[in-house]
Amino acid sequence: MHFIGSCFEKLEGWINGFAIEVFASVLQVKWIDEALAQCGRQTERVRKLPGTFVVWLSIALGFYRTMSIRNVVHRMGSVFGVGSLWPDGEEPASTSLTEARNRVGFGPIRMVMRRLQGWLLATYRSSMEWKGWLLTILDGTTMKVPDSEENRRRFGLPGSNRGRRSAFPQLRALFFVSAHLRLILGAWFAPYRRGEMTMAFRIIDELPSRCLLLMDRLYVAWAWLWGLMEREHQFVVRAPKHARPKRVRRLGPGDHLVEVRTVRSLRRRFLHLPKTLLLRELSARIRGKWYRYFTSLLDPVAYPAKDLVRLYAQRWEVEIGLDEIKTHECAATTVNRPLIFRSMRTRRVLQEAYALVIAYNLIRTLMTQAAQTASVDPLRISFTDSLERIREAALLMAAADTRSLRRIFEDLLASLARCLLPARSGRSNPREVCVKMSSYPKKWKKAA
Predict the structure, then answer these.
(1) What is the pLDDT of residues 399-412, one digit of tens each?
(2) Distance (Å, whole) CA 74 – CA 87
C-alpha cells in the first residue's frame, strides 16, 4: 500500500494512486484508471476518497469480510507508527464512504473483474488445458443479501417450506471456473427468480474459444448443448435418469454413440437446432452405483471413456471453490453468519459481488504463482492457510519501504508453497449436514 508519513521513506504515490501492494503485481492500477474513465467515474477534483481508492476498498471488503467497513478503511489507510493516507489522520466518516461507493457504482469494478479474467486466461491458459481444450466448469449458486425493501424488490425472496417466505433475499450467481487452477474465468449475477439455464443461454457467446465444459444434470438441455457444439466447444455432462436416447453403435464397454431427437416446439424457438443430435453416452459403475454421462467428444481413441469419466470427477472443484468463498473468505455459514454481503442497496450489493470475485482471483493467482515456483500442484495448497498468510503480508508490505517489498513478496510465495494439504485418494463428498434444521420458532421480520 502507498502511505505518506513524516518518517516514511516510500513517497512515490499518494491516495489517488493507491494500491494494495501484495496484489499490485497482478491487478494493475492502469486497469482501474481505464475502467473509471470509460464509465465516467474518474475523480475530477481532490477528494478524501478518490475513485481508485474506492475500487480497492471494494476489493478489500471481500478480502477482509469479517471486519466492519470502518475497520477495513482503517487497515487500508493507517499504520501505527508509520503514517496515514489522510493529512490530518482523520479517517472518512461512514456517510462519506457510502457516498463514495455510490459515486463509483459497480460498472468500473465489473470492468476490472473482466480485465483481470482476460489476463488470467492469457497468462495461465496452457496450465488450464486438457488435450488442447480449456477445461472448465459451469455451475451456479445463490448468495444471501441483507433484508431490505430494495433488495427484496430487485433480487426476490425464495419460497420456504417452513412458512410464507425465506428469511433473506438471494442473489443468483453463475460461475465459469478453471478445473485445474480453480480460477473464476467468468461471473454473472442476476435476481433469484432467473434460472441458471436462462443465464447460461445469455452468456454462451462470452465463453472463450475451445472450451471443454464439465456440467451437472441441470444443463442437459438439447438447445444449450447444441449451442456449445455450434460454437466449437465440447462438454461432458451428467445424464439425468429420464434421458434415454436411441443407441446407434457400441464403441466399447459402457460406451455408445446415441441419437437424440429434438421436439418440434424446441426447433421453432431455436431455428438452427437440427432434428437429431449425435452424442456419446458413457456408463460407469462407481462405488457400486451406476452413472451415465453425455459428451460431444465422439472419438473413443483420442478420448477414452475411462479418461472422460475420471475427468468428470473434477467438476467438484467448483463446489470446493464456492466453499472457499463462502465459508473461508467470507466466514459465512447457514446458522451463525448467513449473509455474504453487507449492503442494503442493490447497486452496492453488485459492487461487492464483483469485487468479491476479484479478491478471490487475486488470492488464487498468488497461490498459483507460488505453486509454479515450487513445482507443486496448485490445488494442494491450502486456501485457508494461504488467506491468512496473504493478509499478514498485506500489513507487512503496507508498512515496509519500497526496497523491502520484493523480498517480502518472495518470502510470501515460498510460505504459500509450504501450505500443502495431505494427499487424499478416493475422497468422497456426500451432500450431508450435521445439523439439519433448528427447532426454534420462526421469526418473521420486516425489511429494514
Answers:
(1) 888 899 999 999 99
(2) 14
The chain-wide mean pLDDT, for the chain, equals 89
Residue from 315, 319, 320, 306 nearest 380 by CA:
320
Q: What's the gap between Cα 227 and its chain centre?
A: 24
**CA–CA distance, 118 with 209 (Å, rounded to integer):** 12
Q: What is the DSSP letter of 183?
A: -
- pLDDT of 338: 79
Angle between helices 346-374 and 107-124 (to 10 degrees): 20
| Alpha carbon distances (Å) from 7 to 254, 300, 403 | 72, 68, 15
Task: Give phi and psi for 166, each to the nearest 5.
Answer: -80, 170
What is the predicted pLDDT for the residue at 109? 97
- Reported as half-sphere exposure (CB side, CA atoms, 13 A), residue 215 has a value of 29
Instruction: Give the burial class of 214: count Cβ atoms within 10 A of its Cβ; 0-12 exposed, 13-18 middle, 19 or more buried.
Output: buried
Asked if 361 and 395 touch (Cβ cutoff 8 Å), the reply is no
- Tens digit of pLDDT for each residue in 105-117? 999 999 999 999 9
Q: Which three cell numbers stand for residue 162?
A: 417452513
Backbone angles phi, psi at 258, to 5 degrees: -130, 155
C-alpha distance from residue 218 to each of 188, 192, 195, 289 (Å): 17, 16, 10, 20
Strands 184-191, 234-238: pairing kind: unpaired
Residue 135: strand pairing partners: 212
Q: State residue 364's pLDDT score.
A: 98
SS3 state at 260: strand
pLDDT band at 379 (very low <50, low <70, confident <90, very high): very high
Cell reading at 59: 476489493
